Amino acid sequence: MAEGDRERWDATHRAGGHGGAPAPEWLAALDAELPRAGRALDVASGTGRLARFWAARGLATLAVDVSPEGLRLAAETAAREGLALETRALDLEREPLPDGPFAAISCFHYLQRDLFPALAARLASGGVLACEIATVRNLERNPKPGARFLLQANELLELCRPLEVVVYREGWQDDRSLARLLARRP
Hints:
By secondary structure, the chain is α/β, with parallel strands linked by helices.
């Protein structure tokens, strides 16, 4: 990722964009399918809403993102909420993912196709991968993100092989076309 991207995300986070919203209801509704112990990794964490979700469930959570500013805000918010959260600035296009195994990995609103085999490999046996990524249909109503960062129809299912799909939904959610997946490593 170019240094300009890091600077752009830092500026976005400083300006209050992509704030500390709670984890999506669809994921929280899958409570019985989600771990309450072990390690968690939140990929492209931004300000850490998914990282805080995992930490609140009792997982030792690592948030990784290209933006040190987003990670700073994630750590501050977690501390205010009484949650322990480790953060690491990481350019996933140039640096490898942290070593696993992880009981849970989240990857929301970040698409780097070549990362998916590494995500699956870092899951512990029985570990879950939770994803929410916009699809190309999103361009029908929204000019951003660009097509490079959008999934084709059912592409997320292909990217997550050989994991076992627990839940998959693709379609319009409010004004965004999203693919949502929870998958488990056998």
